[in-house]
Amino acid sequence: MSGLISGFSAKGRKVTFVFRSNPRAPSAARGIEERRLGGLGHQDGAVRSSAACFQLSPVGATELRIEGVRLSAGSAGALAELLQVLSCGEESAALAFDHLGNSRHERPLGSALAGIAADEREHQALLAGLGASLPQPRQDPSLEATMRRFFMRLADRDVLVHFVRIVAIDSAVCHILGALRCRGKPLASDDRVGSILERIHHDEARHVAIASRCAAPLLKSARGREIAADAREQLTHVLRLRADSLDSLLVDPDRLFLRLRANATAGKAI
Question: Which of 78, 98, 208, 223 is most buried by its number of CB atoms within 10 A?
């Protein structure tokens, strides 16, 4: 598949690039790509999740520790558990955008996607530093298994399908962050936490704009809307395992999930 797609660079500058998709790349080449990206690769249309996805305190986390976080014990514990999902999402996104950028030969697109991957790695580091200042979350094998299945299903050999899912998930993250940092909510009372969430929210909104342009040929179709709705539905299954954490942070999980489903194809970073 090929064509012209208008998009934005990582800095927000509009660019136009030629898009080509080769879903039937030789398996040997895909294997080389997997090894080069440290385990990220296609297998039955999915990206294999890195084992590090669930290590929320990577090497050097003590150096990244964000001091001065002032939250109640209940809010700190709830945020720590919610970070299990958000941190895994940032790592998965960084790997995915690295893969998408490295598999595209068009310089404007590759540069834009590389910029997003760099953003996602910064987000992961910020959340790791924040997590280091919070209580250790409980071990939850059910959550880990559910997250692995979810993130493995996001990728697809058809890059347009992958971009549609990215739009659906990243715009959902914007909704979630907006709800968490809303005035009057516990996390809004802490300047350090609020600034981190605001930074990530702003970046994710820009990522949605870029991915939406890339996904436009499919996103506007009935099939694209179905793909986006399914991605959002699967995300709510993951988040339900942390519904108590959302509730503790004064975010009504049922209302949030309804909103995510209702706006599944809007691609609006609110």
Answer: 78
